[in-house]
Structure formats: structure tokens, C-alpha cells
């Protein structure tokens, strides 16, 4: 089984970050857990953004501080996934978005990376003193729901996001 590790976003991975973004755009996939990467053509601009988003004093209005992670495959130093750990909650996070967002690049799906990446992020949350986290997924996203449940997620309820109309399943994972 290939080893994965979490890394903080940095210039070393700039080219891979841009390629990651393009792969999602080309396949029409949702870039969950990427701290708005979709908006940034240049990785350097996105790296500046995630640096600001990590601190309460500089995170954007209506956001909460978060820690962005790159999920790196150890054998070849390849960026295979991204995850976002939100370090606080507001109403939207508590109701619709959850405390962890994540994605695996389309060309690397189906290899078990999502499960291993989520386990690493749950360990990071535990190391930050969190005792439980909320994860959400769109109703009907069976792959995400199975991943959450496999990692101890207990369904609390479903809610409808009034801005998007999406029905979201809300799961709690005890750490």
C-alpha cells in the first residue's frame, strides 16, 4: 500500500497545485476542500490566500480560520488530494459545510486515497485538541457518505442549503 502524508501548501508544490486545479476544471469535478482553488489560476496567488485564511486576524469575512493540507504520495511526491480543516465554526459550517472538506484528484480516484487522507486529517484534528468533527456531503454522494461512515461518521440529519438548494447529510465523527 502506498504511503501518504499531509503537507502544508508551499511553493515547492506550485506546479502540481496548478495541475491539480486544471484536472478538476477539465473533468468538471467539484474542488471540495481546496480553499477556493478554483478561483486562482496562479498557485502563488492561492498560496497567499491560504496563508491569510489560516489566521483569525486575516481570514476573509464570513470565513473561519482553516488549515489547508496537501495529500502527498510518498513514493513519487505527487499531489493526490487536498483537505481543509476548519479550526472554528460559524452557522454555515455548522449547518451545511462541516469542519473538513476534501477531494482526490480525478485521475487518482478509486485507489483508497480518500480513506487514508481522511484518516490523516482526523489525526490532525485530534492533535489540535478537537474531540469531534462535523463532515457533510451532498445527499446522493454515496462514495463520500461511505467514506465518512467508514471513519466513524454517525448521521445526525439532512438539511437543505437555502443558497444552493443542495440537500446535505450531516455526520459527526468522534475523535
> Which value, in Å, is the CA radius of gyration?
15 Å
- Distance between the first and last residues' Cα: 24 Å
Q: How do the strands of the widest beta sheet line up side by side?
A: 1-2-3-4
Strand coverage percent: 25-35%
Q: What is the CATH superfamily label? A: Gcn5-related N-acetyltransferase (GNAT)
Describe the main β-sheet briefly: 4 strands, antiparallel
| CATH architecture verdict | 3-Layer(aba) Sandwich
Number of helices: 5
User: Runs with pLDDT <50, length 5+?
Assistant: none
Structural class: alpha+beta
Helix content: 25-40%
Query: Total domains, how many?
Result: 1
Description of the molecule:
With 175 residues, the chain is an alpha+beta fold. The protein has one domain (4-174): Gcn5-related N-acetyltransferase (GNAT) (Aminopeptidase). 32% of the residues lie in helices and 27% in strands. The protein is built from five helices and seven strands, in the order E-H-H-E-E-H-E-H-E-H-E-E. The chain has helices at residues 14-27, 43-53, 91-97, 113-127, 142-150, and strands spanning 4-7, 66-73, 78-86, 100-104, 132-138, 154-160, 167-174. The strands form two sheets. The protein has a four-stranded antiparallel sheet, with helices on both faces. A hairpin with a 4-residue loop joins strand 2 (66-73) and strand 3. The longest helix is centred in the last third of the chain and has 15 residues, at 113-127. The protein is globular, with a radius of gyration of 15 Å. The chain starts with a strand and ends with a strand. The mean pLDDT is 96.
